Amino acid sequence: MKYSIFSLLKNTLSGHRNWAPAWRDPQPKKDYDVVIVGGGGHGLATAYYLAKVHGITNVAVLEKSWLGSGNVGRNTTIIRSNYMLPGNNPFYEWSMKLWEGLEQDFNFNAMVSQRGVLNLCHTDPQRDAFARRGNAMRIDGVDAELLDTEGVREMYPFLDFSNARFPIKGGILQRRGGTVRHDAVAWGYARGADARGVDVIQNCEVTAIKTEKGKVVGVQTNRGYIATKKLGLAAAGNSSEVAAMAGLKLPIESHVLQAFVSEGLKPYIDGVVTFGAGHFYVSQSDKGGLVFGGDIDGYNSYARRGNLPMVEHVIEAGVAMIPGLARVRVLRSWGGIMDMSMDGSPIIDKTPINGLYLNAGWCYGGFKATPASGWCFAHTIARNEPHKLNAAYRLDRLRTGHMIDEKGQGATPNLH
Amino acid sequence: MLITCPHCGTRPVEEFTFNGDASITRPTSGDMDQWHDYVYLRHNPKGRFEEYAHHSGGCRAWLVVTRDTATHEIFGAVTARDHAKKRSAK
Ligand SMILES: Cc1cc2nc3c(=O)[nH]c(=O)nc-3n(C[C@H](O)[C@H](O)[C@H](O)COP(=O)(O)OP(=O)(O)OC[C@H]3O[C@@H](n4cnc5c(N)ncnc54)[C@H](O)[C@@H]3O)c2cc1C
Ligand SMILES: [Zn+2]
Questions:
Q1: For chain B, how many helices (H) and strands (E)?
Q2: Per-residue pLDDT tens for A315-347?
Q3: Can you tell me the ipTM of this complex?
Q4: From the CA of A338, how far away is ligand 2's center (Å)?
Q5: Which of A3, A21, A311, B51 is 20 to 30 Å from A395 by CA-CA measure?
């Protein structure tokens, strides 16, 4: 069924009791042309574009839990394309373009809201670095504006401009950045893929990958064996565990990232603002809660639950940026497991095993990448070669010295 | 998470700085493949894990902590020196 004002009116008249489920609940078949491991944003988007762009519809997405139970339903929903290095920005800008047309494309309200992302700077060198980044963005055709202190004050007068340690010197603004309702992205892609014949199979955990003579032949799951010649891994925080089933050791560590939401407030922050002297970012949801987060906890973890020192750290940074936050009560906090790569950039590539494709290493910025990641991964799987937009996201780039290290941190996954 | 430092006793996690997998060993040759694996690849296990931790907010010794990455349960900590000695004795 197509969602429209008419379907809404019709279902309103019958008390919203007759909506059809948005996707089927199929039993796994014995074999598929393509199997995707992981029903997060990236896995579902991959299946959607495989069906829509490449006409490959005999596809299964295997999700060990329910759709949206992973990072796609845990993130702070920020989208932007304000990267600097070659290899990164054209990819993220393509993602932004897909976001801009996504709701019409998959006929689902994902609440894409281009409310602007503002990064604050607090020192002169930081402002210089922002000018450089902004110029790099503009060379790639991305919008970027450098604001001075007064420009920032006009937008957000309640920031702490006179903070003695971290005075606000300005900021870099990407107006096309913003937020998107995260779980609606998973639902929209699932529904669109399902309608084109893809089997989205929940509660189906992959426990082993079977290969013969260096080729993928199928996967073992808790719901039986499924044969396939093409297997795409999109398991985010569990990438190392899943890749190890095929004997691959990845340049990735799993770390926990926490996020928070406050009690509902009247409209207060109409965009996304990030602190430049620590790691803190905040936006306000349509329900009124302030949604915010900061750094990863800093130790390897699969626990989806962080510790209190990081809670304190994030809130200190928040209050340093917006003193008024001290009076706001936090309602909930949660954690998700990040696939932190060694240079802070993702991998979308083939692997040394024939028919095995890898999509991983999203660190804490993979939500904004969801459309382009699915789009490029679908291309890589369908054509058995990367698209030029993901050509730099090679699995072997660290071996050949082609790392994409936006922050210049080196091989330290807990700092990216 | 509470970690029992061999020097300082049981201390809260914010006193420690983590530095990842303590099971990998620095190559002794100049072989680039070995160096690549050492610098970039990680087992990243879900479960029992030995990791380097610097007691940066305490005695400043380097330790090796054994911890479960799925539950955050801590099994113990020894100095990095004792860990290295035990490993080379094996
Ligand atoms: C607190 C937090 C805040 C974040 N904020 C932002 C943000 O503001 N902006 C941004 O761009 N990014 C953000 N991110 C990062 C972003 O959410 C992730 O990079 C992205 O969602 C990862 O891709 P995914 O959606 O496919 O992952 P997931 O939703 O985690 O999907 C992976 C799926 O694989 C499944 N799986 C794993 N192993 C198996 C198996 N063996 N068999 C079957 N299924 C399996 C998992 O159950 C999971 O559902 C944030 C993340 C967190 C945790
Ligand atoms: Zn100590």
A1: 2, 6
A2: 999 999 999 999 999 999 999 999 999 999 999
A3: 0.96
A4: 29
A5: B51
